[in-house]
Amino acid sequence: MNPQPTRFVDLNRVLAELVSSALAILKHRLYGAYLTGSFALGDADQYSDVDFLVVTRTPVSEEQHVALGALHRRLFALESPWAQHLEGSYAPLALIRRLDTERAPFLYLDNGSTELIWSDHNNTAVVRWTLREHGVVLLGPTPTVFIDPVSPTHLRQEMQRILAEWADYLQTEPEQLGNAWLQPHAVLSHCRILYTLEHGVVASKRVAGLWARDTLDAEWSGLIQRALDDRPDPWGRVHRAADPAAAEATERFVAYVRGVAARESETG
User: Fold this and answer.
1) Which residues contact 128 (CB under 8 A, 6 or more apart)?
2) 147-171 burial code (b ≥16 CB/10 A, e <16)
3) How large a percentage of the chain has pLDDT more than 70?
4) Alpha carbon of 200 to those of 129, 150, 215, 247: distances in Å?
5) Dist CA 221 CA 66 (whole Å)
6) Does the pLDDT of residue 237 top 80, yes or no?
7) Residues 127 and 146: beta-carbon distance below 8 Å
C-alpha cells in the first residue's frame, strides 16, 4: 500500500483507512485502488474532491455492497474534511479495461454522500484516460497493465457528448447559472471541453482555464480569470448567489463554446 499518495497527511490517513477496510471486505477480489481526477492530474488542492477508483476482480456481491456502504458511512463520520469529499466507484476489471459503449453502472459514491448507488458516472473515456496515463496507485499494479489506451478520437467524442449534456441541463434549469458555485464551475468545465477537443488529452480545470484565458477570444479572458480566482472555499459558495453579470456572461460563453465545438465536429 502506498503510504504517501498525496502531500496531505490527513488525507493519506483517510485513504489508508479506505483501502485497508475495502481490502478486508473484498479480500482477494480487490485488484487495485487508485486516485483519479485532480489528484492524478497534479492540480489538487485543499478544496479538491478526492476521486478514487477501486478495481475489483469480479463484480461486488450484495453482501459486499452492504459492507462497503457501512464502511463509507463510517469514513464520512471521521473528523477530517477529506472524509466528506470522497467520490469514486468500484469497477469490475473486465469492464474498466476498455471503453464500454453501453456505459454499464458501477457502484458509486458521490461527493458529500454516505450512500453507494449504481451509476455510470465513472464509466467514461475521461476516467480511463486519466487513470491509465496519470493515476496515483494506492494499491495494486500500475494502470497501464490493465487499461487499454484511450484514443484522442474517443476523448473528443466524449467531450461532444458532455457538451450536449450541459446544454440539456442548462436548458432545463437555466437558473443554476445564478449559483455561485455552479457558475465558475460551468466556465471551467467548458474550458476543459475545448482543451480536449483541441489537444486530444485531458487537463485539469486550472490548466484548461489558463490555456483558454490566453487562447480564446479576449472577450472571455476576464470571465475565465474570475472563475480561476473563485477557487477558494468552493463549498461555501454552494448556497450563495452568483454575480448576475457573471451569470449572464457565462450563458454567452457556453453558447460560444457550443459554436466552436460544432465547427470542430464539422471539420473533424
Assistant:
1) 96, 98, 99, 147, 148, 150
2) beebeeebbbebbbebbeebeeebe
3) 97
4) 11, 10, 16, 29
5) 48
6) no
7) no
| Alpha carbons 230 and 223: distance in angstroms, whole number | 11
Residue 239 has pLDDT above 80, yes or no: no
C-alpha cell at 259: 459554436
Question: What one-character-per-residue DSSP string does 167-210 give?
Answer: HHHHHH-GGGGGBTTHHHHHHHHHHHHHHHHHHSS---HHHHHH
Pairing state between β 106-109 and 50-56: unpaired
Alpha carbon distance 51, 88 (integer Å): 5
Residue 260 has pLDDT above 70, yes or no: yes
**Interatomic CA distance for residues 142 and 81, integer angstroms:** 28
pLDDT tens digits for range 146-176: 999 999 999 999 999 999 999 999 999 988 9
Distances 103 to 87, 123, 189 between C-alpha atoms, Å: 18, 6, 21
